[in-house]
């Protein structure tokens, strides 16, 4: 009987323990069930998260909000500081002999220019100086009619040839054609000089040839004269470029009409040399987010130039070698303080991407014009088949603008920058592309106020102020420092007025917003598509039926960093 009793006691103790454990498990199950979502709820969460994930992927980045008003500071948007203290001065010194006293009767220099209108303009200017160095008579230059631009115009159809000859008569003797020789047309001896040839270079290379042949034709005459010359020769360059080279009356009259129509629309206007044509983008090796189509389109154009390296778009853009997109140009100008009521004249050829590419710029500046939109029907017909004459019209409207904005560092940009310095330092804005690249890339991560402030900081030294560029730096046509004089009297008067008014004894700034040295060293040059050498020259074919000599034969392939866009 003892055994069953003990068993009974054991079981009586076991049952409560099992019950307690079971109750605990049941409570745990109920608790877990309460916390766990139902199958329907779980599916809802899963689908919600999936939708959220898709939304995150497709979420549009924050867009920089551009305010309607444009003024961001108190500066005058339409003039440069201290411009009144400088003026253009190109008169010869008393040491510069008259042409009649130094010109040799049996020396003739002819040149064949290269490229578009503005590249040819640099060649013409330098040819006059080269003739003076050689004490030779200059034959009216022969314009390039075979390059990319394919313009058959001759010198007298673009420039006033009689004015050109008469204005420079005291400096260089100029004739329209070579005289006949023994009753026959005189074919000059053809040759080429190295790039940036200085006075000694011209004298040593050409005088012996002129002594024997008496008439020489210099081919592919672009950038064949040094930037560093004697003061009087530099001033002669300025007299040619800023006074002697005058467009024909028909071009001047049409250009004046276009300027007048811009002035009727607004007291002030900006001229923008956009330079966003397909050939320019292809040549630059840059990429603007157009996907496979853009890559294919531009690669096809690049095949025209066998010497171009394979592009690295990211590196080119990082180094500031890419033109800004039209939208970026618009953001730059708005950040500098120009509001959407500002009138803009655009000098440009066919824009890559057409109206879709221009739309963001037009949204920022609705008052958007070109010579085609402000000319009356039929007015451009006499010019439309000639690229150089059309370029001359753009040149006039840009030159007369209150503010000129260049989107590259090509020939038209350089010549107009130098010209505007010479004639009163009118504002000329050059985008500091190297610094702006980083800013544009991060623009959606900052407020408009931050963006605009950084743009203004980065643009110091790139606004066309006096002495932005140190004398001797860059191309002479862009920085004609030898032809810019200080108005000491105006500086003295201004200093006295400041002292009398008690507004401080701080002196007038010598250099205003001078560009940072690293940026000056980064002056960038865009090459140009029309600058391939004439194949007949490359193959050594003599166009003038006489033996030719090419001192540049070891480097006959054009230097793409020297040949700049129009």
TL;DR of this structure?
The protein is an alpha/beta fold.
Description:
- Helices cover 45% and strands 8% of the residues.
- With 566 residues, the protein is an alpha/beta fold.
- The strands form 3 sheets. Strands 4-3-2-6-5-13 form a 6-stranded parallel beta sheet, covered by helices on one side.
Query: Taking Cα atoms only, what radius of gyration do you get, to the nearest Å?
Result: 35 Å
Seen as an oligomer or otherwise, the chain set is single chain
Mean pLDDT, to the nearest integer, reads 81
Low-confidence stretches: 7-11, 38-60, 504-565
Determine the N-to-C terminus distance.
Answer: 122 Å
Determine the number of helices (DSSP H or I, runs of at least 4 residues).
Answer: 23
Structural class: alpha/beta
> In this structure, how is the largest beta sheet organized?
6 strands, parallel
Cα shape: elongated
In terms of DSSP E residues, the strand content is: 5-15%
Give me the count of strands: 13
Helical residue percent? 40-55%
Strand order of the largest sheet: 4-3-2-6-5-13
């Amino acid at each position: 009987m003892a055994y069953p009793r003990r068993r009974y006691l054991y079981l009586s103790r076991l049952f409560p323990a099992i019950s307690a454990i079971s109750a605990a498990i049941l409570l745990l199950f109920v608790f877990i069930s309460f916390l766990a979502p139902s199958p329907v709820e779980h599916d809802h969460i899963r689908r919600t998260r999936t939708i959220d994930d898709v939304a995150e992927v497709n979420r549009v980045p924050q867009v920089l909000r551009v305010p309607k008003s444009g003024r961001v500071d108190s500066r005058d948007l339409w003039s440069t500081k201290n411009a009144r203290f400088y003026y253009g001065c190109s008169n010869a010194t008393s040491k510069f002999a008259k042409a009649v006293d130094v010109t040799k009767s049996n020396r003739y220099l002819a040149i064949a220019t290269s490229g578009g209108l503005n590249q040819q303009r640099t060649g013409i200017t330098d040819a006059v100086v080269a003739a003076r160095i050689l004490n030779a008579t200059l034959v009216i230059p022969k314009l390039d009619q075979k390059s990319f631009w394919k313009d058959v115009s001759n010198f007298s159809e673009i420039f006033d040839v009689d004015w050109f000859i008469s204005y420079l008569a005291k400096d260089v003797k100029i004739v329209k054609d070579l005289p006949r020789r023994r009753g026959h047309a005189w074919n000059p001896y053809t040759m080429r000089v190295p790039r940036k040839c200085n006075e000694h270079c011209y004298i040593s290379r050409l005088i012996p040839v002129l002594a024997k042949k008496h008439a020489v034709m210099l081919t592919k005459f672009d950038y064949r004269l040094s930037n560093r010359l004697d003061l009087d020769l530099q001033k002669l360059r300025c007299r040619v470029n800023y006074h002697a080279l005058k467009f024909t009356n028909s071009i001047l009259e049409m250009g004046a009409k276009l300027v007048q129509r811009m002035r009727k629309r607004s007291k002030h206007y900006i001229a923008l040399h956009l330079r966003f044509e397909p050939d320019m983008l292809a040549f630059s090796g840059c990429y603007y987010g157009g996907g496979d189509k853009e890559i294919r389109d531009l690669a096809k154009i690049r095949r025209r130039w066998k010497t171009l390296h394979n592009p690295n778009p990211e590196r080119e853009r990082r180094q500031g070698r890419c033109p800004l997109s039209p939208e970026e140009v618009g953001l730059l100008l708005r950040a500098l303080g120009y509001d959407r009521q500002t009138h803009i004249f655009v000098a440009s050829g066919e824009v890559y991407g057409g109206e879709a590419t221009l739309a963001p710029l037009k949204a920022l500046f609705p008052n958007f014009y070109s010579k085609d939109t402000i000319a009356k029907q039929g007015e451009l017909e006499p010019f439309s088949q000639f690229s150089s004459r059309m370029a001359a019209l753009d040149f006039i409207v840009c030159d007369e603008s209150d503010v000129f904005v260049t989107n590259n560092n090509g020939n038209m940009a350089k010549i107009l920058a130098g010209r505007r310095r010479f004639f009163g330092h009118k504002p000329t804005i050059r985008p500091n592309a190297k610094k702006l690249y980083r800013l544009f890339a991060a623009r959606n991560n900052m407020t408009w106020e931050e963006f605009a402030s950084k743009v203004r900081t980065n643009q110091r030294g790139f606004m066309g102020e006096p002495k932005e560029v140190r004398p001797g730096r860059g191309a002479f046509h862009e920085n004609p420092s030898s032809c810019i004089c200080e108005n000491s009297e105006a500086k003295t008067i201004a200093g006295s007025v400041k002292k009398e008014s008690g507004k401080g004894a701080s002196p007038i700034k010598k250099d205003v917003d001078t560009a940072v040295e690293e940026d000056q060293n980064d002056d960038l040059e865009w090459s140009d598509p029309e600058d391939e050498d004439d194949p007949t020259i490359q193959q050594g074919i003599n166009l003038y039926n006489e033996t030719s000599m090419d001192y540049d034969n070891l480097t006959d392939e054009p230097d793409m960093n020297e040949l700049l866009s129009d």
